[in-house]
Design goal:
The protein is mainly beta and 414 residues long. The chain has one helix and 26 strands.
Length: 414
């Protein structure tokens, strides 16, 4: 690139700037302080990775190529052969093992969450269970406490246990390695936002009080922050890269979220997050395969759409609920899926259901570049919704300033 910087003293200096560039990045050429730059031309030369610049005009070293991506995997649970084979049926029986099976047998202190550490060379994280499963209703409370935080007023019911590792078959005899996962307890909420309300019976105050959880559930705009109780997964990468997180989602009609501690806003499925895996009921048919090993067993889906996308495909006039953009498939079945998404170093990412407990299978992290959504179809159906996202795909509210996308169209919000 040839440019002519004009300095504050009006001295003109002609320069050739030579530098490496990498796909997916944006580059800026500016002058320092009060200077300006006049651009004469840009020359671009595509080179192989072994031809990166190591020096310019014999002085100084140029940038080095991006590091070679490395992938590492941690398993909460995986399946292994317990009985090699039943000679009569040919069926293989599996049990569960994994990097953390022993860790799941250790519970947290009384009244505190149980936490299993997730550790890799380039990332750390936690799988959390509990501690508060519910609040016990109480009588005779001063009505003035209504609307106050439930903690310290109602008795907490603690459950920080794990459900134990479970195995899900993918083939008739077990020739295909089954899936294995571990589930925790408690709703993933901001527990400090649970309040007390009086129970109304036939229109009259009953004198009994209960917990109101509604304000404590996660909101996609990030206004309630991340989870502080219940079952959730947190992951912190040490470098930029891509996470691929294996999950069991029990209640398919509950929203599934990924957010980070930058703004806690939900990352959009189909753009920020790729979903692949298995949905209960979506199985191999005898007209799709001749292999009896797989008929009637779940089949793998590379790109699973959300409930909102499916609704619009079936009825272009449909207006899905905002939560339907975060429900996997049609939302009426359990699923075993992997969420793949790009991450930034030193942030913490949270994965959780809105008001139920998910199971964790494994965590895979690829460092040195991001490629999570490259295989997601570029054209998604346009769906009518009140959801507004910025150009980064993050959900924003009406106070946001800048270019946004709503119902497939771009707008400038001032």
């Amino acid at each position: 690139m040839m440019s002519t910087p004009r300095c504050p003293d009006d001295n003109i200096k002609n320069n050739y700037s030579v530098f490496n560039v990498y796909p997916g990045r944006r580059y800026y050429v500016i002058s320092s302080d009060k200077g300006s730059v006049e651009l004469y031309g840009i020359y671009y030369n595509k080179v192989s990775s072994d031809n990166y610049i190591t020096s310019v005009n014999g002085s100084g070293e140029g940038p080095t190529p991006p590091p070679t991506p490395t992938t590492e995997k941690w398993t909460a649970a995986s399946s292994y052969t317990e009985v090699v084979e039943n000679p009569e049926t040919g069926e293989i029986t599996y049990n569960a093992k994994g990097d953390a099976i022993a860790a799941y047998s250790t519970l947290g202190e009384e009244g505190k969450a149980s936490i299993v550490k997730i550790e890799g060379t380039n990332f750390t994280g936690e799988h959390v269970s509990g501690p508060i499963a519910n609040f016990k209703d109480a009588e005779g409370l001063d009505p003035s406490v209504e609307g106050q935080p439930a903690r310290g007023i109602l008795e907490e019911q603690v459950d920080n246990t794990w459900s134990g590792a479970k195995v899900q078959k993918l083939s008739k005899t077990g020739r295909e390695l089954p899936l294995a996962y571990v589930q925790g307890k408690g709703n993933p909420v901001n527990i400090d936002l649970v309040t007390v309300e009086q129970i109304i019976t036939e229109g009259e105050p009953s004198g009994r009080f209960r917990a109101n959880w509604n304000g404590s559930y996660y909101k996609a705009d990030g206004s309630t922050g991340g989870p502080k109780n219940g079952t959730y997964v947190s992951l912190s990468p040490k470098t930029d890269g891509t996470f691929k997180v294996g999950l069991w989602v029990n209640k398919g009609n509950r929203e599934l979220y990924v957010c980070d501690d930058f703004d806690y806003k939900a990352k959009a499925f189909g753009t920020d997050v790729k979903v692949s895996g298995y949905i209960n009921g979506t199985t191999w048919k005898d007209d799709e395969t001749s292999d009896e090993e797989y008929i009637s067993f779940m089949k793998f889906q590379e790109n699973i759409k959300t409930k909102a996308e499916i609704a619009v495909e079936e009825d272009p006039t449909a207006t899905p609920a905002d939560g339907d953009y975060f429900i996997i498939g049609k939302g009426n079945q359990a699923s075993w899926v992997w969420l793949t998404f790009n991450v930034t170093a030193n942030r913490t990412y949270y994965i959780f259901n809105k008001n139920t407990q998910l199971g964790l299978m494994d965590v895979e992290f690829t460092s040195g570049g991001t490629s999570a959504i490259e295989n997601i179809p570029a054209a998604n159906p346009v769906v009518k919704s009140n959801i507004i996202v910025n150009l980064a795909g993050q959900i924003v509210d009406s106070n946001y300033k800048g270019i946004v996308i709503k119902n497939g169209k771009k707008y400038l919000m001032k």
